[in-house]
């Protein structure tokens, strides 16, 4: 199994000189194709920064992020944006749907932004993947929170990305609706017919992380170990250990 994403000595600093702040790194790790990885750590540990650099939403200060075989650090801003639109999907805690557009029109946006004329079949296919084929003409204010987040997932899937990135995707959802979304993400990885292939998700909730194959832990912007085949209990126990003094573990390459 090769890598969908590979990070090599990746760092992200903000500011310069004495006021510079290192938010991340150096971090070296990989996300294999066909895997579901959760990223966890205390507030300010660099979780979202790592996700944004890996997805090409933010440019690393040094090191490299290789996404679907392309080194993002070697691309210009314009080429990186174009590549990101085609190779990745991104789901945020806030649904970020345009209220004046229908579910179908919201899902079609990434295709329009990339200069393509959306085909009705491919947009409807993306909505069907998330169980909303019958709500194509509904606007966001006529959808529940869970349905809006499913539209956001469909919008991320419509370009058939190599990797789906999700930043606290269940944060605005109730327990039942959140579980339904997590089961959908799990199925997208497990099902070859529906699969996006690879999911990388930031969360603060051990119960949410337990849906993943692997949990990667960050603290103070660097790797602090990882956990395979996680359960909510084992993740919670590892999180509680992060505040205790001890050596930082480097996550091995998978």
TrEMBL record:
It comes from Streptomyces smyrnaeus. GO terms for molecular function: ATP binding. Gene3D superfamilies: P-loop containing nucleotide triphosphate hydrolases (3.40.50.300). SUPFAM superfamilies: P-loop containing nucleoside triphosphate hydrolases. The keyword Transport applies. Coiled coil: none annotated. This is ABC transporter ATP-binding protein. CDD domains: ABC_MJ0796_LolCDE_FtsE. PROSITE patterns: ABC_TRANSPORTER_1, ABC_TRANSPORTER_2. Keywords: ATP-binding, Nucleotide-binding, Transport.
């Amino acid at each position: 199994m090769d890598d969908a994403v590979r990070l090599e000595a990746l760092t992200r600093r903000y500011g310069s000189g004495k006021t510079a702040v290192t938010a991340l790194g150096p971090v070296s790790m990989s996300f294999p194709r066909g895997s579901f990885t959760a990223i966890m750590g205390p507030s300010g540990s660099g979780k979202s920064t790592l996700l944004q650099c890996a997805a090409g939403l933010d440019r690393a200060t040094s090191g490299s992020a290789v996404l679907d075989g392309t080194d993002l650090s070697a691309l210009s801003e314009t080429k990186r944006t174009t590549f990101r639109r085609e190779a990745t999907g991104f789901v945020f805690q806030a649904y970020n749907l345009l209220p004046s557009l229908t579910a179908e029109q919201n899902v079609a946006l990434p295709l329009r932004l990339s200069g393509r004329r959306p085909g009705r079949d491919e947009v409807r296919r993306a909505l069907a993947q998330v169980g909303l084929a019958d709500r194509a003409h509904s606007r966001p204010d006529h959808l529940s929170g869970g349905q809006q987040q499913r539209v956001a997932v469909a919008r991320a899937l419509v370009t058939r990305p190599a990797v789906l990135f999700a930043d606290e995707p269940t944060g605005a959802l109730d327990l039942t609706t959140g579980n339904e979304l997590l089961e959908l993400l799990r199925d997208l990885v497990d099902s070859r017919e529906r699969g996006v292939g690879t999911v990388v998700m930031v969360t603060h909730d051990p119960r949410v992380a337990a849906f993943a194959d692997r949990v990667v832990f960050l603290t103070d912007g660097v790797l602090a170990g990882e956990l395979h085949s996680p359960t909510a209990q084992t993740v919670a126990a590892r999180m509680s250990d992060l505040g205790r003094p001890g050596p930082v573990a480097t996550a091995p390459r998978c």
